[in-house]
Predict the structure of LacI family DNA-binding transcriptional regulator.
Amino acid sequence: MKNFTVTIKDVASLANVSTATVSLALSGDPRVNVKTKKLVEEAALKLNYIPNEIGRSLRAKKTETISFIIPNTSHHVFTHPYFAQLLEGINEVLDNHNYNLMLSTSPSEKDESAAYNKILKNRRTDGIILSSASIHDRNILRMVESGFPVVYLGKWHHDNVLTVERDDIGGAYTATEHLIRIGRRRIVHITGPLDHQEGIDRLEGYKKALLDNKIHYDEALIIEKDFSRESGYEAAAELMRKQIDYDAVFAGNDLMAIGALKFYKENKISVPGDVSVVGFDDIEMATVVSPMLTTIHQPMREIGYKAAEKLIAFLNNQEVKEKRTIMSTHLIIRESCGADMP
């Protein structure tokens, strides 16, 4: 695997100065003139360079604050039921250890880099809990390598990152196999973004269930969306426009499933008579929509709690026995799939 770690030599090369000048410029030494300092800072920002000394100083200077960074893919991110439950678990642990919580959003990959670097430079936080990032985002690994404490909520593709994960593959497999067991064969999967690991893993679980049950995988039944309720509505509309033949939908989260339910209701498509629908998350809204949503339950509050526990242990120099913690999921059968409710 290619190593994307940026060093002081890379910054020096881009700015066309010595490594000593880079070190002096980034530490604010007055011997470096304004023009050179600007060149170095621009090079460091372009490369997303995080000096190792920042990590060391952060460990020495406590702020008693933990940051929870949420990529801002929705205008309603702080009222999103998924994040609300995560925050409950995180807050309980931080309150018990007298830590404050700082919330932050980042609307784009470019802004994510700037946000992380600003937090590090200003030294406003002792550690970060990060929820959902593109698999192409290099900031997480850079922060870990700089010595900054980070816990990621989800699977990450480097072993040295502390994570609390859901069993996304297993949950998606269970959802898809349930639909197969009740007689569905043309199962649409509305995925989340496929540059995010949860989107990739839930698609993998869906595919595996089809394969194990000898059902042909059809690309026409895969619609990539963004986890929002509006995108679930759009997916159902797209299926109608394209005249796709299908008898079930497995949505990558509950909000997209609920968006699809809204479209079906408006267009007099019977659920579960014409189409069975299954979601993923088990948010509170799943029990108040009509028909009530069959879904995969994931313990969101417990995930937040476990992530905060792991970060506090790391900050207190305690042994973190599990770098990866995987939380189990299970099927909740309600009205939208057509199976008998327990």
